[in-house]
Amino acid sequence: MFSGSSSVLQDKRIVITAGANGIGLAMARHFLQEGATVCVCDLDGAAVKTISGSHEKLHGFEVDVADPSAVQGFFKAAEETMGGLDILVNNAGIAGPTALCEDVEIEDWQRTINVDLNAQFYCAKYAIPLLKAAGGGSIVMMASNAALFGFPMRSPYTAAKWALIGLTKTLAMELGPYGIRVNALCPCSVEGPRIDGVIEREAAKRGVSAEKIREDYQRQSSLRTFVRADDVAAMALFLVSGLGAKISGQAIGVDGHTESLAQL
User: If we measure between CA atoms, which residue out of 256, 241, 136 comes closest to residue 189?
Assistant: First the structure.
């Protein structure tokens, strides 16, 4: 499943949340190919089981990152497994509901904020002491191009992603003196089952075809395209490696240049 030899991340110890599927798994592959040791956590226990044992430097744990005690336990396990931590990729997130604000159920709002924002805080809280102990490192927050615009019918998701940019810039200021860099990635729609589900739900809400929604989404980008998980992983690799050594506090688009998200 994985191949490669030592390179720009040789001996680096990395945690990736939601790392057993999609973007997180793509990142794990890229990092392992560059010589890193990787601990991933994921709510999908079957996916964790599938990847476990696929590479000698890949370790999987089933964790709900919206549960702070579970997150604390995971970081203790990651420290014991890898002997420390050099890089955190805060990748976990959910799409949340597709609805006008007044139609969003309270529990859907809370769940989206818990996973897309609170969990990022929990992971950063427990990772930071390990990164300081390592003498420096890097944190990547998974934001979205929804953190750069308003996004009708996606208010919980958008609110969480805008908040992540503020958290990113604040942590960059707090942690810079310790040699810890913090950046946010802002991808547009990423090809795969998750965006397919978002498109289908929005199509149903609007009473149009899924293909029409897909075309609308693609027209939001100057390149008229979605991105691949590997596109996002490649930028993450750049940021956490020495190639991005002087980059911190940034919200970086991997989106073909988003022009607008407004589509009411």
Answer: 256
User: Which of 59, 10, 23 is closest to 236 using CA atoms?
Assistant: 23
Phi, psi at 192, each rounded to 5°? 145, 180
Residues assigned a catalytic role: 157
What is the average pLDDT across 150-175?
A: 96
Distance (Å) of CA 7 to CA 12, 39, 44: 10, 18, 30
Give dist(CA 35, CA 171) in Å, integer: 27
- pTM, whole model, 2 decimals? 0.88
Q: Which letter, b or e, does each residue of 53-82 get, where b requires 16 or more Cβ atoms within 10 Å of its Cβ?
A: eebebbbbbbbbbbbbebbeebbeebbeeb
Nearest CA to 159 out of 216, 110, 224, 125 is that of: 110
The pLDDT score that the predictor gives to residue 17 is: 98
Q: Among residues 257, 191, 197, which one has the least CA distance to residue 226?
A: 191
**Rounded mean pLDDT, 115-126:** 98
Nearest to 181 by CA among 232, 252, 94: 252
Nearest Cα to Cα of residue 215 among 204, 206, 229, 226: 226
CATH number for 13-189+228-254 (one of 3.30.2350.10, 3.60.15.10, 3.90.170.10, 3.40.50.720): it is 3.40.50.720
So what's the pLDDT on residue 201? 78
Q: Which amino acid is at 228?
A: R
